[in-house]
């Protein structure tokens, strides 16, 4: 890897978000070869891993009378309820077998607290509890970030907006992301990322 202040942040390329998984993103596995090819061009590779306890509060199964994709109000705001996914230690939580994981300098797990979800790689869904990634990147002098992965409209979107607000120079390679797209969530995410100053590449 070249010694440049540029990190590739690869969001949640895990079995459960790929075809056949519990929360499959359409074509979620179509981005993997392109992501692998980008790794040697950056100064650092970071992987994030959605990593939930079996009774996580973002799971519809934990809310009587609720179904996946219903909305509930949590103390930190509105939360989409999901099918059970990325349970700690499950095969679904593993990185997709075609993703190169050896080049990763850092693997960041998120969503491990039962009572709060964490879409962003930087803050949990209360927008204040840090994951520690900001400190890691700053300590290494990594100021330029390229984000790729799953899903464009949830974890990539929240991560990119937070990174831009924190003052990083952020690009999202849309060709190396795929979306869930619930009720216009992709369009809303693209607008919000653009307003936050994220450079959207391959739109
Ligand atoms: C994600 C929904 C629930 C994501 C994670 O990686 O975008 N989406 N957990
Ligand atoms: Zn999740």
Structural write-up:
- With about 200 residues, the chain is of the alpha/beta class.
- It has helices spanning about 30-40, 135-140, 150-165, 185-195; strands at about 5-10, 45-50, 70-75, 75-80, 105-110, 145-150, 170-180, 200.
- A six-stranded parallel sheet has the order 5-2-1-6-7-8.
- The two termini are about 25 Å apart.
- The mean pLDDT is about 100.
- It binds pyrazine-2-carboxylic acid and zinc ion (ZN).
- Zinc ion (ZN) binds near residues 50, 52, 58, 85 and 111.
Give a short overview.
This protein has one domain: Isochorismatase-like (Rossmann fold), CATH 3.40.50.850. 19% of the residues lie in helices and 23% in strands. The chain has helices spanning 32-38, 133-139, 152-165, 185-195; strands at 6-11, 44-50, 71-74, 77-80, 106-110, 144-150, 169-178, 199-201.
Keywords:
203 residues; alpha/beta; Rossmann fold; six-stranded parallel β-sheet; binds pyrazine-2-carboxylic acid; binds zinc ion; metal ion binding; Nicotinamidase; Isochorismatase_Nicotinamidase
Q: Helix amount, in percent? A: 10-25%
Q: Strand count, sense and closure of the main sheet?
A: 6 strands, parallel
- Tell the overall outline: globular
CATH topology: Rossmann fold
Structural class: alpha/beta
Bound molecules: pyrazine-2-carboxylic acid, zinc ion
């Amino acid at each position: 890897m070249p010694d440049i202040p540029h990190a590739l942040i690869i969001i949640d390329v895990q079995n459960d978000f790929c075809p056949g998984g519990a929360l499959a993103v359409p074509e979620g596995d179509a981005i993997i070869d392109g992501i692998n090819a980008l790794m040697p061009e950056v100064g650092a590779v970071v992987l994030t891993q959605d990593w939930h306890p079996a009774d996580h509060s973002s799971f519809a199964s934990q809310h009587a009378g609720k179904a996946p994709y219903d909305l509930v109000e949590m103390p930190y705001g509105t939360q989409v309820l999901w099918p059970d996914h990325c349970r700690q230690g499950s095969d679904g939580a593993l990185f997709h077998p075609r993703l190169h994981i050896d080049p990763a300098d850092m693997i960041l797990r998120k969503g491990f607290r039962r009572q709060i979800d964490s879409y962003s790689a930087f803050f949990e869904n209360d927008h204040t509890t840090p994951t520690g990634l900001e400190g890691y990147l700053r300590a290494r002098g990594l100021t330029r970030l390229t984000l790729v992965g799953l899903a464009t409209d949830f974890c990539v979107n929240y991560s990119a907006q937070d990174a831009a607000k924190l003052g990083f120079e952020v690009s999202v390679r849309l060709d190396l992301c795929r979306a869930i797209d619930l009720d216009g969530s992709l369009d809303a995410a693209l607008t919000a990322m653009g307003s936050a100053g994220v450079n959207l590449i391959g739109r």
